Amino acid sequence: MSRPLIIEVLLAGHAPDSIRHAHGDFDAWFAASNSGHIRFQSTDLSAGEALPDQEASDGWIISGAAAAVYDDITWLVEVETGIAAAAVSGHPILGVCFGHQLLAQALGGRVTRNPAGWELGEVRAELTDEGQADPLMNGMPATFRAYASHQDAVVSLPPEAVLLAENSAGVQAIKVGEKSYGVQFHPEFSLDVARAYTRYRRDQVRQEIAWPEDGGNGSSRTLRNFISQIVEGAKDDTTVV
């Protein structure tokens, strides 16, 4: 029986109340990138909901969170095992910020507090040679602008992971296997959301902040490219609506 293409947003947390009330939550920001070919639905891992069956969707997006992946989080161990299995099996995955770190840790990488400090506001990142050739980064310049809000980082890549983008603060994007990606930046952030996060966190940051400019999120193409890969790789018995 045919069904529409589905992306499951795995909520590892939620936006702060003040931001959520003004701008919505993570799942709404991801869904805003929809080209019309995809149905988005959500599973709230942070509320104890079980990791969904891979067969119930055509890909997963793992959201950000205020927590750290090395924290003692009740649901994390079982979810890590499931994410690792899904990545190995070839299920398309895009981990964003906390989701990027979770994917890396689940597959054998290492995540710590970033010795370079916070990345908050607008940052610059550079594609590696591998990144310039990867479909996730299709159409992006070698140096691109992105929005960030994090103080942890992947400091050791999983075995066989490919580094796609980096900057002076460390790893910015990776690929593991054929269809699993992690990005440290936030391709789902609008300018308003990026500025709201910068205001929200600026008192925690003891360093210079690059406030987002009114030039758009240069990394948003990665999210659209991920969705395009799912559409293009859809199974023959799946109906795109």
Q: What ranges have pLDDT less than 50 throughout 5 or more consecutive residues? A: 236-241
Structural class estimated from helices and strands = alpha/beta
Largest sheet: 9 strands, mixed
- The portion of residues forming beta strands comes to 25-35%
Radius of gyration: 17 Å
Oligomeric category:
single chain
* Overall shape: globular
| Mean model confidence by pLDDT | 93
Q: In the CATH hierarchy, what is the superfamily? A: Class I glutamine amidotransferase (GATase) domain
**Count of helices?**
7
* Strand segment count: 11
The main sheet orders its strands as 2-1-3-4-11-10-9-6-7
**Which CATH architecture is right?**
3-Layer(aba) Sandwich
Q: What is the helix content?
A: 25-40%
Report, as a whole number of angstroms, the end-to-end distance.
Answer: 14 Å
Order of helices and strands: EHHEEHEHEEHEEEEEHH
Q: How many structural domains does the protein architecture include?
A: 1
What is the CATH T-level topology?
Answer: Rossmann fold
CATH class: Alpha Beta
Give a short synopsis of this structure.
The protein has 241 residues and is an alpha/beta fold. The chain has one domain: Rossmann fold (3-Layer(aba) Sandwich), CATH 3.40.50.
Characteristics of this structure?
single chain; 241 residues; alpha/beta; Rossmann fold; 9-stranded mixed sheet; two-stranded antiparallel sheet; 11 strands; disordered C terminus
